[in-house]
Amino acid sequence: MDDIGAELRRLASTDPLGAIDGHDLLARGRRSRRRRRLLSAGGGIAGVAAVAVAAGLLPHLGTASDHPAVSGPRTPAATTKSADFTAVPGVPRGEAGIDLKLSKADAMRLCEVRYPQYHQPFRLNYPWRTTMTVMRQLKVGDPAAASLCTIPGGDRPSAALIAAAQQDPVPTTEAEQLRNCSVQFWSDLTRWKVIARETQPGAGATLVALSPSGRLVAECELRTKWTPAAEPGSGIYKVATFSPQPFDDNFDLPGGQECATIRPCPGWAYLASGRVASNIARIRIEPVAGGKHDITVTDGWYAVAWLNGDKQGRPDAKLTAYDKHGNVLKVVND
């Protein structure tokens, strides 16, 4: 627990905004550690078939959000229809159903609504909330798909929407990517405003989207192998607690060892998103093996889906941050 406490203190010291929410700090800490990883381009968790889900009554679940709404940016109407989503009993629709505090019993009931075939207990104690992903305790012989539960929000996607996400796990259009992210969280994100997005064919996609109120931000990672839970790099957070992180911390690109066991080695896929200082407009990655990859940054928000062809997966890529005029702001690993 010491490392968790240290992480909370570090995050608290860098966040100048009012009251600190322990759930968000823990989530940000976990997201930061998850983000800095390299995956084999052909790797990932094996996809499993979409499952039919049955809704149950949740009499103990609160129905009001504990977060006030504020004004903010909106995005044009998406192509999905209202029939693509139905209510999850006991959970408010839309933004109001995101990040709701839950009891452990209610979190378990919601997981069984979404995954009725799995009844494994939770592995750890969490500050239970809707749209967060939690681990289950598996026994020998349990399927890998039972290891995670993304606690649903208030918008249950239709069987057709789930099937579309499963059939095309890394679509290229913004609307289809928001559809797949909605399926991950069981929350309708189709009218959220995408502020950063990048797609790497054959490797994956990453996007960042703001809610219609401007209060929430979603990081959504899409991989080539579809899974029924949100991907490790996906999460929904309050904008007020998602403060910009140091440039060299966000882009600490490590090497990897998986490639040494894969023949032939396909290179490394780097999927990431986050927030840096708002004066950064572009970031350039120059791997040791040569080449370059430029990332557009919008008001500090970025998304990366990059396939590094270095078959050795070597770390220490050169990283350069530029302002909107092309001036160099910082260089890492020069």
Descriptive notes:
This protein has 334 residues and is an alpha+beta fold. Helix content is 19%, strand content 23%. The protein has helices at residues 2-14, 22-35, 104-114, 159-167, 174-185, 247-250; strands at residues 39-40, 85-87, 133-135, 148-150, 155-157, 193-200, 204-210, 216-223, 235-238, 268-275, 282-286, 293-296, 301-308, 318-322, 328-332. The strands form 5 sheets. The protein has a 4-stranded antiparallel beta sheet with strand order 6-7-8-9, sandwiched between helices. Strands 12-11-14-15 form a 4-stranded antiparallel beta sheet, with no helix packed on it. A 3-stranded antiparallel beta sheet has the order 1-10-13, with no helix packed on it. Strand 11 (282-286) and strand 12 (293-296) form a beta hairpin. Helix 1 (2-14) crosses helix 2. The longest helix is centred in the first third of the chain and has 14 residues, at 22-35. The protein starts with a helix and ends with a strand. The relative contact order is 0.15. This is Tat pathway signal sequence domain protein. Residues 65-88 are annotated as: Disordered. The chain crosses the membrane at residues 38-58. Keywords: Membrane, Transmembrane, Transmembrane helix.
